[in-house]
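Supplementary notes for students who missed Thursday's class. We covered one full example, reproduced here. Read the sequence, then the structure, then the short commentary at the end.
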Amino acid sequence: MKLLSPRLAGVAVAAAALVAGSVTSVQAETADTRVSVRVTAGGAPQRGVDLIAEKVDEDFNGYTAYLGVSGSDGVVRPSKGSRFWGTPRTLEPGTWELAFVDHAEEHGTVFRTVTLTAGTNTLADAVMEPASTARGRLLTPSGLPLKNVDVAAMAVRGETSLGFSVAMDENGVDSSRSDGSYALHGLGRATYELTTGERLMDGWPLMSRRGKVVVTQPGTTYQVPDIRVRVQPTMSVARTKARRGVAVVRAKLLVQRFGISKPGGTIRVYEGRTLLTKVRATGATQSLRVRLPKGEHRLRIKYAGSKDVRPTAMKHLDVRVR
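Structure (token representation):
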């Protein structure tokens, strides 16, 4: 089973939090298990810090819970905006990773490892420190700047990369600009793996580990070496009527949103395994003419890829030639 995180690909488990006096308590399945949390910064209570928890079981299933937000006294309490992912809606006994996230990005995310025991109260106070930032550039393998590609910092805890930095809104996430630059804010003391993807595509299918940042000093800007990414395009296909034994396939490779004007590589049309025609991809709508005998035909259209652009999945068109 693969690990999932709430922002990148959906999460499997969450928790419900209840207030008992001045502590945040969570009802576990086997007994009353409580977690007492107070957040401070510079010796004073810190307001507006979200608390989330993640764990990974022996099958590498990811479990996540949003427990609440700190008030003016620094105590974490459930909020009306609490979000839960999956079932069961309990914080079970065992080892959990806690993350304290400041969305103002003035303070870096603080990580704590806690072991919850059934019927006991676990203390998990946090001291916030000035946030750090990671900056860098995204380039194609040939060196062109990439825009509109998302970069996310995921904290490495133990042997697993967890989604703390992307779990709550925009902390630790940015989209590259026209010059390929990005900036990841709100980072705390931790080792982060940098992943790239496009959030507009379902489930971040482009997510892959691309770099690493080790934050050791609060309030520091870290420069990340250039990250080179071979982007994943989409392709639209359509056909016109087949006349006199000729069918025209219209195809367009969509890569302009990444700032790539000349994708290179070829768009190819097959019937079965037979290559009927091909044309060099330009990023504009292109017409591919194929001569076919009378009858029903199933055409396969594919972009073969280039140095900077990945291949697309095969698309199919049914054509009838009279």
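Commentary. The first strand starts at residue 17 and ends at 20. Residues 1-31, 84-89, 165-169, 200-206 have pLDDT under 50 and may be disordered. If anything here is unclear, bring it to office hours.
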